[in-house]
TrEMBL record:
Superkingdom field: Eukaryota
Keywords assigned: Hydrolase, Lipid degradation, Lipid metabolism, Signal
Keyword Hydrolase carried by entry: yes
Listed Pro residues bias regions: 356-368
GO BP term, pick one: lipid catabolic process
Name the UniProt record assigns to this protein: GDSL esterase/lipase
Annotated region described as Disordered, given as residue ranges: 348-374
One Pfam family of this chain: Lipase_GDSL
Annotated organism of origin: Vigna angularis var. angularis
Signal peptide: 1-24
Length: 374
C-alpha cells in the first residue's frame, strides 16, 4: 500500500516535471516607457513621472488610476489582447511572483525611461532600458530556481518580447537644453550613440534567450500637444518629427540586420508614424474631433504637464487623439495598435490569431463622470 502510494506520487511528480517542460505558456516581456507602463512608476515613490492620480485610468476597469498614462488601454495592451496573449503585470506589482510570471509574463516599462541611462534624469526615479534588462535577468534567475534551467530556457525562448522606447531620449533629453547630451552631440552623433546603445541592448536580449522580438518606432513626437504649445506658432515642431523619422529608419535597418545576423530569431519593426501623422492632420477622417490639445487639461493653462484631479476633461474622450500633453487616448492607441497588427501581419501569419474577447477597457465616455460640464 505504502509502496503503491509512493509509486503513484513518484509517477505524478515525474509527469508533473515533464508537463512543466513541455507546456510552458507563451507570455510577453515588455520593455518600454510611459506609453507601455502599467504601474511600475506608481510603485516608485519618488518618481515625478506618475499616473497615480485621477483621471488616469478613467476608462478602464473600475476607473481608478492604475499606473497607465492614458484614460484606457496602452498600445501593448491592445496588441496582446488581439493576439490572445495575457496582459503582463507591472514588475513592481506586489502580486508578481514566479507563478504569476509563468502565466502572464512581466512588464518592466517605466514612465520617463529611455534607451539611454541619462534620459529622464529629472523624473528622479524610473527604469532605463539597461535597468529593465537587468531586472529581466533577475526574473530569469527566479524562474530557473523555480522550474529548472531546461524548462526556463524553453519558457524564455518561446516568450514574446516588446521593446518600445526612444521618445524620451529626445523629448526628455536631447531636445532639452538642461541635459548634457543636448550640447555634447549633434543630430547625427546623437543618433549614432542612441542606435549603437539600442543595438547592444537588443544583442544582450538575444544572448539572454529572446527569440521573438518586436521593436516599436516613434510617432510624430513634434505633434504632441506639449511640443506644439512650446512652438510659437502652435504647429508641430518639424525638428522633432524629423528626428523621429530618422530614428525609425535607423531602427528598421538595425532590426533587419539583427534578423540576418540571428537566423534563429524573428525580429519585427513596427512604426505607426504615417498613420498617426495622418490622424493628426485629418482627425475627422478617422472619427476624431481634436488632434492638437489634451483631453485632460488644467482649464486653459498650458502646458498642463500632467493630468490632475483638478483638471477638466473633454466631453467625449473618444474624440480626442491626445489624453494629456504627451500621451494618446485609448481610442488613438487602438488605431495605432490596429495599424501595427496589420504591419506585423500578426493575425494572419501567427498561430492563435483569433481575436481575444472584447477588452474590459472599452471607453464609455457617456457614463463616466466628468469634473467639468461644459
Ligand atoms: C546604465 O545603468 C546600468 C544599471 O542600471 C548599468 O549597469 C550600465 O552600466 C549603465 N550604462 C552606462 C552606459 O553607463
Amino acid at each position: 500500500m505504502d509502496f503503491n502510494l509512493a509509486l503513484v506520487i513518484v509517477v505524478i511528480t515525474i509527469l508533473g516535471i515533464g508537463l512543466d517542460g513541455c507546456h510552458s505558456k507563451v507570455v510577453q516581456f515588455i520593455f518600454g516607457d510611459s506609453l507601455s507602463d502599467v504601474g511600475n512608476n506608481m510603485h516608485l515613490s519618488r518618481s515625478l513621472a506618475q499616473a497615480s492620480l485621477p483621471w488616469y485610468g478613467i476608462d478602464m476597469g473600475n476607473g481608478l488610476p492604475n499606473g497607465r498614462f492614458t484614460n484606457g488601454r496602452t498600445v501593448a495592451d491592445i496588441i496582446g489582447d488581439r493576439t490572445g496573449l495575457p496582459r503582463p503585470p507591472a514588475f513592481l506589482d506586489p502580486s508578481v511572483s514566479g507563478e504569476v510570471i509563468l502565466e502572464n509574463g512581466v512588464n518592466y516599462a517605466s514612465g520617463g525611461g529611455g534607451i539611454l541611462n541619462e534620459t529622464g534624469a529629472y523624473f528622479i526615479q524610473k527604469f532605463s532600458l539597461d535597468k529593465q534588462i537587468e531586472l529581466f535577468q533577475g526574473t530569469q534567475e527566479l524562474i530557473r530556481g523555480k522550474i529548472g534551467k531546461r524548462a526556463a530556457d524553453k519558457f524564455f525562448k518561446e516568450g514574446r518580447y516588446v521593446v518600445a522606447l526612444g521618445s524620451n531620449d529626445f523629448i526628455n533629453n536631447y531636445l532639452m537644453p538642461v541635459y548634457r547630451d543636448s550640447w555634447t552631440y549633434n543630430d547625427e552623433t546623437f543618433m549614432d550613440y542612441l542606435i549603437g546603445t539600442l543595438e547592444k541592448q537588443l544583442k544582450l536580449l538575444h544572448s539572454l534567450g529572446a527569440r521573438q522580438l518586436v521593436v516599436f518606432g516613434l510617432g510624430p513626437m513634434g505633434c504632441i500637444p506639449l511640443q506644439r504649445v512650446l512652438s510659437t506658432t502652435g504647429n508641430c515642431r518639424e525638428k522633432a518629427n524629423k528626428l523621429a523619422l530618422t530614428f525609425n529608419k535607423a531602427v528598421s535597418e538595425l532590426v533587419d540586420d539583427l534578423g540576418n545576423h540571428f537566423p534563429d530569431s524573428t525580429y519585427r519593426f513596427g512604426d505607426a508614424y504615417d498613420v498617426v501623422y495622418d490622424v493628426i492632420s485629418n482627425p475627422n477622417k478617422y472619427g476624431f474631433q481634436n488632434s492638437d490639445s489634451p483631453c485632460c487639461s488644467f482649464w486653459n493653462i498650458r502646458p498642463a504637464l500632467t493630468c490632475v484631479p483638478a483638471s477638466s476633461l473633454c466631453k467625449d474622450r473618444s474624440k480626442y487623439v491626445f489624453w494629456d500633453e504627451y500621451h494618446p487616448t485609448d481610442s488613438a492607441n487602438e488605431l495605432i495598435a490596429d495599424e501595427l497588427i496589420k504591419k506585423f501581419g500578426l493575425l494572419n501569419s501567427d498561430q492563435g490569431g483569433a481575436p481575444s474577447p472584447a477588452p474590459d477597457a472599452a471607453p464609455s465616455p457617456d457614463v463616466a463622470p466628468s469634473p467639468e460640464d461644459q
